[in-house]
Design brief:
Immunoglobulin-like; Maltoporin, Chain A; 22-stranded antiparallel β-barrel; five-stranded mixed sheet; 6 helices; 54 strands; globular; Beta-barrel_TonB
């Protein structure tokens, strides 16, 4: 052990030459600025400042143009020689608006948004600190551009441009998070991520299949977790934060701690977060239809309906969660950078609240309907190498292994048979990405990807009166899902003001499933799918001046059938059961969007993007026959047989618009609104609203900033969907919607008024919090099975060191 410890010390302090350190300060406060990005687009060099506002820029020596960017500050371009004359200390001026920033989701490499035709937004850590989102789903919603649906408190299913669930892609540290059991129904996996451990969030709107492959139809949500920071001096760099938070609406008790230990060549980051949420209280003013004032309790071998003392509590919705992350970084020299990350997340079991609202014969439909612990684990090794040879300037190799575990537990009211279905997915991925500049104005991005998902599913039936268990039907067949792909993107700077980019990707997807016919008499025992898919994109960005940006993009995307599409068995709604269908092919999306952004006199910024997407061979749930029968007995109920089929064409179009205004004396105003219209073809040739096309929604904010204080008063709002505007599949879900005078389901409009504040007590301590839903509205976001929080008081204390 002694030898190992000495070796670790030698590696940690190895290297007698020290790089050149730059310090970047705010010109008004003279305080250091963290996460400033320094880049050179020609050589694709980059560096970011640490909590002391410092970065090593020795790799930039002799570079003529170093772009220095920070959100909320004016971009500065300096040569290395100029920085040397200024003793490598730079002060950045405050800027009201930014039309350019550094993004990574467009290509997996850091790029200026000047060169990316797709619409990409970033959610900054400062915004997260002010807003105090409870989950990663809530983090996405604070942008005002992502709609979030919830079926229970322990969840959050983003909707982007009329698409959701398995038609959106999640990326964590550049690794695909989607698995072969991501479903078309609302998907809650984003809560696996820890908002406290995320240093950057980006949302790419529209197709991203060229870079990310299958599923990236409506958009890509890219999360970058905390990066280990190296020391820029002889002394170890020790930084971190600790946070405690309380929220009243669900009695939230949250604690977080992270620490960075950095040496010259080695760095380590450790992060731990624990959440505990009680049952969520909804507001007191709103539709009575949202109130379920009872819950089921087992007493003396009988299910008893208990009337709640507080009818506004949504029981059962309580849950808890723990997240842990450990990252290790080794940078032996300027050319090599090794990073390993371990992530672990586990929830407690929690009730699926929308199912607990179902009734049958005047009594609750279920005595139990819970998700078991949801577990996610990832090992990720990322190797970056700079070579500047004839093949590449930079190379990135990502090797990842993920483990997903989830389960569903249900029991009908006053029945003794409990059904448990458990799923396990082992996901392996290899990404090899390259970047190569060819000439002054041309850059190639290219790479290869391999993904393997190994799916195992099992079922169990337990008689709770005797505690005897036996094997039951599984939700999925035993399956392997594989994807092999190659892609290339070319970025050409035609002029200083105009950048053109285009790309293509070929994907080959294989799916092999083995069906167990013990419980269901399927007329097949296996499914073997082999599908190739070619997708592409072409777009441009034009800047006629520093205050104008125009962008246009054409792109295609695809989604290959996965195990959930081909092989699941489940009750989608009362009286219906979904069965496997081994005869599926990919669905394709074709998209066009046009964006315009303009700054008027450094006082007003306007940003508008219009888009249109057509989805062909859409994978949708339709009536089906199994062994010639259109109905079968499922869990004791005669149910209509349905299956996922390539049976529809869907169209989505809409506008995203934003306005920001800089007002005097530290005040500012902004509004983000989203309008989308989705239409889906039905069996009879008619059309219906697409399920994941949310009604009009947005957020308006009034901000105030002065020295150590930041405050915001905002209004979140959603438009109305009448009964005839609801998707056909939603009209029968009367348990989760309000009812009109005719007893038909509809989604009412709603708003919440919210106040947030953050104050820096000292250089070490911040206090933040606020009041959400000041007027105590009882509201339910479209398609959600649980109401939002009523009046909610939040208090958070953060210590930085």
């Amino acid at each position: 052990m002694k030898k190992l410890f000495v070796l670790w010390l030698l590696l940690g302090f190895a290297g007698t030459s020290f790089g050149q350190t730059i310090t970047i300060l705010d010109n008004q406060t003279n305080e250091p600025i963290e996460l400033v990005t320094l880049t050179n687009t020609k050589s694709h060099l980059y560096a970011t400042t640490d909590s002391k506002g410092q970065a090593d820029i020795s790799a930039f020596k002799n570079i003529a143009n170093i772009e220095i960017r920070s959100l909320g500050h004016k971009t500065l371009i300096k040569s290395y020689a100029e920085l040397e004359l200024e003793n490598f200390t730079v002060s950045l001026e405050i800027s009201n608006f930014n039309l350019d920033e550094v993004v990574i989701s467009g290509s997996r490499w850091r790029q200026s948004s000047d060169d990316v035709p797709s619409k990409i937004i970033s959610i900054s850590p400062k915004e997260v600190a002010l807003q105090n989102p409870q989950t990663a789903a809530d983090l996405l919603s604070i942008s005002g551009k992502v709609f979030v649906q919830k079926s229970q408190q322990g969840g959050g299913s983003p909707m982007i441009r009329g698409f959701a669930t398995s038609r959106l892609l999640y990326s964590v540290d550049g690794v695909r998070m989607n698995t072969a059991i991501f479903r078309s129904g609302n998907l809650q996996n984003v809560i696996n991520l820890d908002p406290f451990a995320i240093e950057g969030t980006e949302v790419l709107f529209g197709p991203g299949s060229v870079i990310y492959g299958s599923d990236a139809i409506g958009g890509v949500m890219s999360f970058q977790t905390l990066t280990p920071r190296l020391s820029l001096s002889n002394s170890p760099l020790i930084t971190g934060k600790a946070n405690v938070r309380y929220s009243s609406a669900n009695n939230e008790k949250t604690g977080h701690f992270d620490v960075n230990l950095g040496f010259k060549k080695w760095a380590f980051v450790t992060s731990v977060t624990s959440w505990d949420y009680d049952n969520l209280r909804q507001g007191s003013h709103g539709p009575e239809d949202y109130i379920k004032d009872y819950y089921v309790q087992r007493q003396d071998s009988t299910d008893v309906v208990i009337t709640q003392e507080d009818k506004l509590l949504q029981i059962p919705s309580a849950f808890s969660q723990i997240n842990m992350m450990q990252k290790i970084r080794f940078q032996p020299n300027e050319r090599w950078d090794f990073q390993y990350g371990f992530h672990f997340s586990e929830t407690s079991p929690y009730g699926r609240y929308d199912r607990h609202q179902r009734v049958r014969h005047g009594l609750p439909r279920y005595a139990e309907w819970d998700y078991g612990p949801q577990i996610w684990m990832m090992n990720n090794l990322n190797i970056n190498h700079t070579a500047n040879n004839s093949v590449f300037d930079q190379m990135s190799l990502r090797l990842a292994h993920q483990w997903f575990e989830e389960s569903r537990i249900d029991r009908s009211f006053n029945k003794t048979e409990r059904s448990t279905q458990e799923e396990e997915v082992a996901a392996y991925s290899v990404n090899l990405d390259f970047i190569k500049a060819t000439g002054e104005r041309n850059t190639f991005f290219y790479g290869f990807e391999y993904v393997l998902n190994d799916v195992n599913s099992k079922g169990e039936l337990t008689d709770i009166s005797t505690d005897i268990s036996e094997v039951g039907p599984a939700r999925y067949p035993k399956s392997k899902w594989q994807s092999l792909a190659v892609y290339v993107t070319d970025e050409y700077k035609a002029t200083d003001n105009f950048t053109l980019s285009g790309g293509a990707r070929y994907n080959y997807v294989l799916l092999d499933s083995e069906f167990d016919t013990t419980f269901y008499p399927f007329p097949f025992t296996e499914a073997n799918l082999k599908n190739g898919a070619l997708t592409g994109s072409l777009g441009g960005v034009y800047r006629p001046s520093g205050s104008w940006v125009l962008s246009a993009n054409l792109g295609s995307a695809f989604r290959a059938p996965n195990v959930d599409d081909v092989g699941k068995v489940f009750d989608s709604e009362p009286g219906s059961v979904v069965v496997p269908n081994p005869d599926l092919k990919p669905e394709y999306a074709y998209n066009a969007d046009l964006g315009i952004a303009k700054v008027f006199g450094d006082i007003v910024k306007v940003d508008i993007t219009g888009y249109y997407t057509s989805l062909k061979d859409a994978l949708v749930r339709r009536d089906f026959k199994l062994n010639g029968q259109d109905s079968i007995l499922y869990k004791g109920e005669l149910s209509q047989v349905q299956a996922i089929q390539n049976a529809a064409v869907a169209h989505v179009y809409g506008v995203q618009a934003g306005v920001e205004v800089k007002l005097p004396k530290g005040f500012g105003f902004s509004t983000d609104v989203n309008f989308q219209k989705g239409e889906e073809e039905l069996d009879n040739g008619e059309s219906s609203t697409s399920r994941h096309a949310a009604p009009f929604f947005g957020v308006s904010r009034l901000n105030y900033k002065a020295n150590k204080l930041s405050m915001e008063l905002n209004v979140n709002y959603q438009g109305k969907y009448d009964f005839d505007e609801l998707p056909e599949g939603e009209k029968e879900k009367t348990e989760i919607y309000a009812l009109d005078k005719d007893g038909n389901a509809f989604a009412p409009s709603w708003y919440t008024l919210n106040f947030k504040a953050l104050y820096k007590l000292t250089t070490t301590f911040d206090i933040s919090g606020g009041i959400e839903n000041l007027t105590d509205q009882r509201y339910r976001p479209y398609s959600s099975g649980i109401s939002g929080a009523g009046r909610n008081f939040i208090l958070s204390l953060t210590a930085h060191f």
